[in-house]
Amino acid sequence: MALRGLDISAESKFEFTLPKGCKIWPAPQYGQYSPHVEGSKAPNPSARRRRQSILNRPAKAAKARMARRSAVKEVGPEPSCSHLPLTPRDKPLHFLTIPGELRDMVYDLIVPRNTKIIAQNRPCFERRPGRKGSREIIRRYPLEPKIAQVSRQSRKEVLSIFYAANTFIFRRSQNRLLRNFSITDPAWLSKWFQGCPSSEFLRRVTLQFDACTRNVLYSVTFTLEKDSEEQIRAAHDFNKPQYCACLENTLVTQVLNPVTMSSNLAYVATMLAWRRRNAVLILGVRDDGADGMYRFPTARCLICHKRHPTHVGID
C-alpha cells in the first residue's frame, strides 16, 4: 500500500523498540473499526446491507410536465350561413287548449264533493294596507276551488260544475257567535247568492229551519231540485201526522206556482225563505225564552184542527 510515497508493508522494520504491552502496528484494520480506537464496535451487517440496498435501488423516472395552457383561446371555425329549412314546431300545449271533454274529466275528479256542503256567512277581519287597524268583512263559505282563479274561462267552467254537481245546505249555525249571521235569514241568504253570479247553476238546495214540539228540537227540511229539463221540484220532510203541516204545504204550493215560477234555483230558495218568515211573523209570537223562536197563539190549527208545533224558528 502506498502512503505519501512510502512503502509500508508487514516486513517493514523500524529503528525503535516497541514498549511492553503495545499492540502490534500496523493493525489489520483502519478507520472507525480500528482496534486502536477506544469504544470501537463490531460492524453492523444489517446497516451496511440497508445502505447498499438504497444505493442499488433504481432511480424513479421523472414525471413529464404538462404543457401550459395558452392564454389565447383558440378560435373555432365560423358557423355556416347555409342551412336546411327548419321543420315547423307544434304549438305549446296548455290546459285551456286541450278539448273541452278532457277538461271536464279533470274537473269531475277535483270539483265534486262526496258530502253535502254547508253554506255559511262568517265575519272576518281584514287589514288595510297603509292604515292602522283592520275592518270587518263578511266572507262566503265554502271557498271556491283554487283552479277557478286561473283565468276567466276556467272560472266559468269550474264554477258551473262546482254549483251543479254538489248539494248545498243552508241551516242555522250551532255556534252562538254566528247567530247574528245566520244563513237561514232571508237577508243573509240573498247576500250569499248575490256574492257569486255562478250560483245560477245550482241544482240541489236544502233549507233547514228549527222547530220544537214538547221540548224536542228538530229541523224542518225543504228540498229544492232542478231536473234536466230545467223544471224545479220542491218538497218538505215534516210528516208528523199528529201535528199541523199547513204552513209547509202552503210554502211548497206557492213556490211551485207556475205564474211566479222561475228557473233560477237561487231565486226560488230566497223567495221560500222570505215567505216563510213573513208567515211566521204574522201567525206567531216571539218567545225570548226559547232562543228567539216563535210560538202560535192557539194550540190547534184553524184549518186542519191539528196541534201546532210548540215553537218554530225563522233564522
Description:
The structure is a single chain. The protein is of the alpha+beta class. It has a domain at 97-312. The chain has helices at residues 45-56, 100-110, 152-165, 186-194, 246-255, 265-283; strands spanning 2-3, 6-7, 117-118, 120-127, 134-141, 168-170, 204-213, 216-226, 232-236, 285-287, 293-295, 311-312. Strands 3, 6, 7, 8, 9 and 12 form a six-stranded mixed sheet that branches. β7 and β8 form a beta hairpin. It is elongated.
Can I get a quick summary?
With 315 residues, this protein is an alpha+beta fold. It contains 6 helices and 12 strands. Helix 4 packs antiparallel against helix 6 and helix 5 (246-255) runs antiparallel to helix 6.
Considering the chains and any ligands shown, give keywords for the structure.
315 residues, alpha+beta, six-stranded mixed beta sheet, two-stranded antiparallel sheet, 6 helices, 24% helix, elongated, disordered N terminus
Using DSSP, what is the number of strands? Answer: 12
Determine the fraction of residues in helical runs and give it as a percent range.
10-25%
The helix-and-strand class reads alpha+beta
**Please, how many helices?**
6
Tell me the fraction of residues in β-strands, as a range.
Answer: 15-25%
Specify the biggest β-sheet.
6 strands, mixed
Q: Could you tell me how far the N terminus lies from the C terminus, measured between alpha carbons in angstroms?
A: 138 Å
User: What integer value in Å does the Rg equal?
Assistant: 54 Å
Shape: elongated
Query: Average pLDDT value?
Result: 79
SSE succession: EEHHEEEHEHEEEHHEEE
Low-confidence stretches: 1-6
